[in-house]
Amino acid sequence: MSDALLIARLVLAAVFATAGMAKVANGVGFRQGVAGFGLPRVLVSPVARLLPVVELACAVALLPAGSARWGALGALGLLSLFSVVVVLNLAMGKKPHCRCFGQLHSAPVGGRTLVRNGALLATAALVVWPGGDRPGPSAVAWVADLTAPAQFAVIGASVFAVVVVAEGWLLVKMFAQQARLLVRVDAVENALLSGSLTGPTPAPTPAPTPGLPVGTPAPDFALPGLFGETLTLPALRAAGLPVMLIFTDPACGPCQALMPEIGRWQAVYEGGRLTIAVISNGDRDVNRIKATQAGLRRLLVQTSYEVAEAYRSEGTPGAVLIGADGLVASPLAVGADAIKVLVADVAGEPRRIPVVAVNGGHLNGGHLNGGGSHASPPTTPGIGQPAPAISLPDLEGNRVELASFGGHDTVVLFWNPGCGFCQRMLADLQVWEAGADQTHPKLLVVSTGSAEAHEDMGLRASVLLDNSGEAMRRYGATGTPMAILVDPAGRVASDLAVGKDAVLSLLSTHPSPARPPGCIELQPALAGDR
Question: Are 308 and 247 a contacting pair, CB within 8 Å?
């Protein structure tokens, strides 16, 4: 039993020592991780500084027999506190990245995090349970009692293990940097082969319109509801009414703001005019709580956006109407305002909000199912019009203006760190930025939330905070991700692009003539390379 206790202490000491040193080595990244768990901003820095010290102290205390129980108690307390914080975040539908081991490992928290914590909690409890006078032999005394060759072997093995871990981490970073360099070289080679570096500037091409074309057969699906029932599209159409699917995300702020209105629509229109089904994703219990609070009657949970992708919905909130014949009956409505317009048209009620024109899309000339109404003028500025001014603080609090990007094509990307679709396209943005050169547009990200929520995005582009939503309203952006191109003269040069594919198309198909033909200039390395 004493040997088992010693092994348990050594395992705990190794885990806490590794975690503490990794946090110290990656101070900025760990501070961002702490902020991601929702800690008040004033406490982020103190906790980020203190926690590694406490972990290292626990690791040291676990080695001598006299202090081993106190070290195990400290480990038990830290693990219990972290488990509670993880459970609270998961209950709120949040999965912040756990940076417990600094840059050695970073992943969103989830069930595996709790399983790992449970195993370590059991190990710490094993050390605490026998009592203060029986924590097993002292690791320090055990090493001291060894012969000189054995001591040399133990110390050598420990140093070798540390070196192997360090070299493994360096190799991972080098391979990641090499991959980014290869992406950039491939982009230059492709440009040379296609002649885009020396040829004339191609004309802008429209960004893809989101959603399936009107008249397309609606993809079928079978999804679980909030209480274990399974619903299919034929079951939703059984009443012979048009069916509206509304795609949401539990971490999307505009989605949650729209939920009570959806609950009202279900209560008023179902049974006579329209069947409404909300399709969300994430944890079923979290969705059940949110649905109950909003008074929703029908909410289905997809596993990983599979139904949204089948309907080409790449942003939230979004909605599409399916006719009684099973065919797509409307373009994809993106954003709360566009969804309200779509519902009003189907219900035959006057529109009380402006229509947002997206990629030239429209709602069958302003009418659906004979619901006559007059649309207000679109709020998205037209191509050729002056781009609305943007003057917002960046992540460091410095005010940045869109006008400062004059002389170069600029893609203004509207973003939300809590939007699942935004997070899913972040890697694509990083790859695009790695391969972009002076012929590509500059990228300006306009987002919401705190500075801490954006610091781990890994982009060189400026990120401006628009928590009032004023900039988004000026451009008619009613959801995320959306983007628009502004030309070197400060005029709008594209329709509003909606969703990942449309945004990436906008970034890739509008090269700037600012660079002289034949001039090849590699851009600086990514932030992770410096």
Answer: yes
Interval 299-331: pLDDT, tens: 999 987 889 889 988 778 889 999 988 999 888
How many C-beta neighbours within 10 Å does residue 289 have? 16
Residues 176, 182, 186: CA angle, nearest 5 degrees: 150
Burial class (CB in 10 A: 0-12, 13-18, 19+), 11: middle
Q: Would you give the DSSP letter of residue 401? A: E
Of residues 426, 506, 439, 427, the one with CA closest to residue 188: 439
Q: Where are the alpha helices (DSSP H) in 222-352?
A: 233-237, 253-269, 284-294, 306-310, 336-347
CA–CA distance, 327 with 176 (Å, rounded to integer): 45
Residue 380 DSSP SS3: coil
Interatomic CA distance for residues 413 and 426, integer angstroms: 12
| pTM of the entire predicted model | 0.41
Give the tens place of pLDDT for each residue, 251-260: 787 888 899 9
Cα radius of gyration (the chain): 28
Residue 121 near residue 76, CB atoms below 8 Å = yes
Instruction: State how far the Cα of 201 lies from the Cα of 196, in Å rounded to an integer.
Output: 8
